[in-house]
Amino acid sequence: MDLPTLEPSTADRVRWARYREYLAFWEGRQWPDRPRPGETRLTVNYARALVRKVTSVLFSRPVRYSVPASSAAERALAQLATEDDWHGLDYAAALDAAVLGDAAFKVTWDAARQRPRLTTVDPAQLVVATRPDDPREVVGLAHEYPLAVGAVEAVFGVRLPALGPEGWVTVREEWSAGHYRLSVAGQVLHDGANPYGWIPYVLVPNSPAPGGVWGESDLADLLDVCRELNRRLTVLSRILQVSGNPIVVLENVTASEGIRTEEGAIWELPEGSRAYLLDLLSGGGVGVHLEYVRLLFQVLHDLAEVPRAAFGDQGRDLSGAALELELQPLVHKVERKRRSWERALRQRAWRVLDLLERFGGADFGGARGVEIVWGPVLPVDEERAARVQVALVGAGIRSRLTAARELGSLNPEAELAQVARERAVETPAG
After folding, report:
1. At residue 46, what are phi and psi to the nearest 5 degrees?
2. pTM score, two decimals?
3. What gap in Å lies between CA 342 and CA 138, rounded to an integer?
4. CA 356, CA 391: separation in Å to the nearest integer?
5. Phi/psi at 341 (nearest 5 deg)?
6. What is the pLDDT of residue 211?
7. Is the pLDDT of residue 163 over 90?
8. From CA 119, how far away is CA 107, in angstroms rounded?
9. Taking phi first (over 0 means left), then psi (-120 to 50 degrees means alpha), and beta for anything else, what does residue 180 get?
């Protein structure tokens, strides 16, 4: 298949601008302009705490890969996931997705290491083409990124002496299922068949937007509330500053020499005049302000779908069941994210299996059906869970293998095999 047109569209430029806005906000640049000299401005980056909380719950434990048609394929995925720290990679990508709205992986064959290579990719470097009748199916992708001149030979195995020893060059990769084109500094190094037969990228939309491959950021609904919270807390801070250095109000006084607010000061005022300190904390104005701030925090938690109880401070003594009910908004949000991630993780896993069979000499019988096994969203009572699994196995309605998986074993087959070996040693034949 020839390469489709892969030039940035207006929608791509809007998407990249949105990425820059969200990233700046995440990093704490949340005011529209710079403060004046001496001006107090508070930035309470509560949005970052909310995003981190959801991401930590989403990938609180490594996912497991189940391949019913091939135990060898399942073991290979488990080994690679452990050795190459896919869990850490997933968490980093999940933060990207939550902040920007999108994340992406690149899955290629590392000939030097003789194993699949899995990396994250900046979605701001990507342009895609999709099927006209299915905007969720990618049929072409361009990846353009900077690369140090000195790294060109190490990465691509070619030397470009005309570039000089220092500086940066632009690398552009263009992919379709059947075609691959590689350009470095405008020089085409490869233009031919795709060695994989599929596009070696996996896109992960955070919250899939209707009718496309890109997603929506967790920050999208939080920006205005966070900015208002910053403004209100700044006002409160200024009020407290002024109250600590009170303003002297003089009535019927033409000269203010000798009027000082230091401790023990004595004021001599003309007859008929009056002097007092302006108390900005009186009159209930601060109380209204504080109530408004509390309301903003509540709105922020509601929009983020992260109840205050998720931070361990619900202010009430709740039972386990009541606490689970309190945390339902967070659970539902994580479950929605998991549906998007499952599709991406399955795509990634079958690409890895294909690489191992095609280039690594593995034989999985062509097995590509991968199921993603998540741990529980909320912490569980492990002792109670173990009792339940023992009862189900004892009743003959659940296998030991399934029970081991449910209890979180990363490699249940190997674990059961080890149990069998230990029993054989403890119980000699006789």
Report:
1. -70, -25
2. 0.79
3. 17
4. 39
5. -70, -35
6. 76
7. no
8. 7
9. beta
Q: Encoding tokens for residue 280?
A: 């900005």
Q: How far apart are CA 343 and CA 353, in angstroms?
A: 16
Q: Output the six-digit token pair for 32.
A: 């529209």
Place of tokens 């499952």: 342
CB crowding 156-195: b at 16 or more within 10 Å, else e: eeeeeeebeeeeebebbbbbbeebbbbbbbeeeeeeeebe
Could you give phi then psi for residue 353, rounded to 5 degrees?
Answer: -65, -40
180 pLDDT above the threshold of 90? yes
On whether the CB atoms of residues 15 and 216 are closer than 8 A, the answer is: no
* Upper half-sphere CA count for residue 342 (Cβ side, 13 Å): 14
Q: 1-43: per-residue pLDDT in tens?
A: 578 889 999 999 999 999 999 999 999 999 988 888 878 889 9
Tens of pLDDT, residue by residue over 65-87, are: 999 999 999 999 999 999 999 99
Euclidean distance between CA atoms 201 and 377, whole angstroms: 28
Kindly give, in sequence order, each residue whose CB lies less than 8 Å from that of residue 124, ignoring residues fewer than 6 positions away. 15, 16, 19, 100
What tokens were used for 142?
């361009």
- What mean pLDDT do residues 200-210 have? 90
CA distance 261 to 259: 7
Strands 134-148 and 168-175: antiparallel
The yes-or-no verdict on residue 281 having pLDDT over 80 is: no
Any bridge partners for residue 204, and if so which?
103
Report the distance separating Cα 319 and Cα 231, nearest Å: 37
Q: How confident is the model at residue 252 (pLDDT cuts 50, 70, 90)?
A: low
